[in-house]
Amino acid sequence: MKKTSLLIMAFIILSLLLTACKNNEEKKIADVVRTFYETMKKGDLDKALTLTKGTDQASPEQLLTAKDILSLGSSMAKGIDKVVVKQVKLLDEKNALVLVELQLGGKAKDTKMKAFKEASGWKVDISGQ
């Protein structure tokens, strides 16, 4: 009887720990996505670039291309009033799908983003793939 009780208690504790880890990762991803949109709105392309997938090992040419893409997005992002991360779905330990609600001129628009975990942390994918 004691062994069964201890086994059940250990299972409950393990479940709680795993849930806490998952929630912590989801919070990190949501923070990165929010920060990405905020930096885009401010026009801080250098900061936005640090939050973008693939820039850790990118060549200078690739960084310039990514910065050009961000520059186009930044002009559109200036109209964003509010960013609400509605849902983060961890697909595995390195991939996530994020549902974001953008408030644009008082109207809400949902958009999906992918996030990837790299050595330096979670990054957003701007490739659209």
Automatic annotation (TrEMBL):
Which residues constitute the signal peptide according to the record?
1-20
Keywords in alphabetical order, please: Signal
Gene3D superfamilies, sorted = 3.10.450.50
Per its record, how is this protein called by name?
A: DUF4878 domain-containing protein
> What organism is this sequence from?
Thermanaerosceptrum fracticalcis
